[in-house]
Amino acid sequence: MAKRHKADERLTMAQIAQIAGVSVPTVSKVLNSHTDVAPPTRKRVEQVIVEYGFVRNRAGRALRKGKTGLVDCILPRLDDEYFLPILEGAAQVLHEAGVRLVLTSTHHQTEEEIRGVDTVTDHSTDGILVVLPAEETIEHLERSGLPFVLIHSQGGLLSTAPSVRIASWEGGFVATQYLIARGHQRIAYIGKATVAREAIERIAGYRAALDAADLPIDPQLQCKGDFTEEDGYKATKALLELSEPPTAIFAGNDRQAAGVYRALHELGTIVPDEMSVIGFDNLSFTEIMNPPLTTIHAPRLELGRTAATMLLRLINGKPLEMARVVLSTHLVERQSCRPLARLAKSQ
Amino acid sequence: MAKRHKADERLTMAQIAQIAGVSVPTVSKVLNSHTDVAPPTRKRVEQVIVEYGFVRNRAGRALRKGKTGLVDCILPRLDDEYFLPILEGAAQVLHEAGVRLVLTSTHHQTEEEIRGVDTVTDHSTDGILVVLPAEETIEHLERSGLPFVLIHSQGGLLSTAPSVRIASWEGGFVATQYLIARGHQRIAYIGKATVAREAIERIAGYRAALDAADLPIDPQLQCKGDFTEEDGYKATKALLELSEPPTAIFAGNDRQAAGVYRALHELGTIVPDEMSVIGFDNLSFTEIMNPPLTTIHAPRLELGRTAATMLLRLINGKPLEMARVVLSTHLVERQSCRPLARLAKSQ
DNA sequence: GTGAAAGCGCTAACAG
DNA sequence: CTGTTAGCGCTTTCAC
């Protein structure tokens, strides 16, 4: 077992070498599993290393090798469950590759984000993962020359920067189609008026599904929403005051769906008997909602994994098979939707 | 604006110095805002730095200064909302101090955790934050000589290692007391049989409150539970089959409370009219539960902030005012509890 | 198989 | 005020 040492007494390779009676390069070779070390020598060195609990200074290594073994991940915020699996996925892949993850939270401020990018560009890391980057941030990144991968990149249609996104359009389409297949014709959507690319795609998918089914697209049924619980709540209240309210609500995301539930509960409208509700994202709490929410699963773990994998390739100078990856969503059927025929209020 | 450069062409201070027609130390001084640089010189250097978009290599600096400006945070897992605010709090404080946060997830494996600690001990970071460390991990940490702070340390009563915890006992006591004050006498607790220190304290607080009110402590009302939704569900089912079921359930944590709700809903027992329920942690979804859950708020953000603040002091060689900090909890009253008098089933 | 020498990019000490 | 000198801890030739 390693001996105990004083707090600030950190051994260097030179000291290990001296104790083991060898030279510094030999210790280095042992540490890096080079083959050109005689077994007895290796043994002796290893023993000293273990005995003294030596761990090599990463800074020296980084300086020498020009790589830090660190990757930066810039997130808009940490207190949102949404980002967790992305982080987890990235961490998994990076961990397997022996790369460590440096976390930067920008608290939704572009300025902070750019500062983050600049801080990162000091080569304290070998590459960068950015979730929901602003347009400006992307420019900074491209200028930096560091490898990077964008997650949920907003805009940047022109840019050829490597990115991973979710097929929001498809998700919106599938959710709506699912409702249509169950006989719903008046389907509301909450979450209009956001600039985020994902949101725009989502509502486009909704409209396309209606259109494909030859259903009218009623502007009254498209509610504003910034993807918060409150927005879902308000929109639902408004929706139910319509002369001809919807029979189903596509909530845009799960948080809004929670608001929809709350409004519906207050109004005494029963889900799914009197109103079908479908969410988007598949956040963890949707399972324990009452009734459990049918929703579109956004593969966030894979988002993180894929982005990290791409970044690793970039860092190692390998080419990317695809620069702009789009990950598919799928519907998770639970108990918040019901065929229209059975709806109490309808017809 | 910075000119564009080839991807792998990173300027060094030497190059900047040459371009600006000064020596390397001068550039260093400018970068570090030293006062002993003539204004014109400074101006010229700064201009070159901006023009070429130079950012200094952190590894060189780290090597020279013996500090990396990085702090490691080891978490049992990333896919649990519980840990988010802790991380966020730590990130906030660290960010303010210009220190960056390196994330390590151990996936609940002690082995991984120790490996994590060892990896970290390579001085790639200046200090370590460990959430829910195993006993063994603490030993490794103490041996490493690196500054560290424990968050939610399990066990380690003997250890004097710096740590931050939540007053679980107090929380358990307050929750139970709250129920007692509302006339409840048969109060169940879910979450027995865990080794985690926090859990042991929590149930002790529960028992103490009962005891203080001269209420009997019925073993039947103390259910096993590992703090998952499923455990809350099962325990509740069992509880309601008792000849004399409880009138209130202290769910141990919010996740179990969610299970309690589910079981109760299945059985047609209405919260809070027929059963009062109280949680612990104050996770974000408790607000949108139906009815919103009354729970004990565990100050997780402050947990992270406090731990990070302590670690920073340690890193800078300053003494800690307190080595073992305990953060207070408080009750968040919502709508899942009701005075016993009004209970339909009771008496 | 081993070690001496060189140098990664940076900052601190000091001489001028 | 400025530049010279030295060296952080490590890895990489390249002699021996």
Sequence-ordered SSE layout with sheet pairings:
2 copies of one chain form a homodimer.
Chain A: H1 13-20, H2 24-31, H3 39-52, H4 58-65, E1 70-75, H5 84-96, E2 100-105, H6 110-120, E3 127-131, H7 135-144, E4 148-151, E5 163-166, H8 168-181, E6 187-192, H9 197-212, E7 222-224, H10 229-239, E8 248-250, H11 254-267, E9 276-281, E10 294-297, H12 300-315, E11 324-327, E12 330-332
Parallel strand pairs in A: 1-2, 1-3, 3-4, 4-5, 5-11, 6-7, 6-8, 8-9, 9-10
Antiparallel strand pairs in A: 10-12
Chain A binds a DNA duplex (16 and 16 nucleotides) through residues 12-14, 22-26, 28-29, 31-32, 36-38, 41, 56-66.
Description:
The structure is a homodimer of 347-residue chains. Chain A contains twelve helices and twelve strands. With 347 residues, the first copy, chain A, is of the alpha/beta class. Chain A has a six-stranded parallel beta sheet with strand order 2-1-3-4-5-11, sandwiched between helices. Chain A is elongated and about 90 Å long. The first copy, chain A, starts with 12 loop residues before the first helix and ends in a 15-residue tail after the last strand. At the A-B interface, helix 4, helix 5, strand 2 and helix 11 of A face helix 4, helix 5, strand 2, helix 7 and helix 11 of B. Chain A binds a DNA duplex (16 and 16 nucleotides) through residues 12-14, 22-26, 28-29, 31-32, 36-38, 41, 56-66.
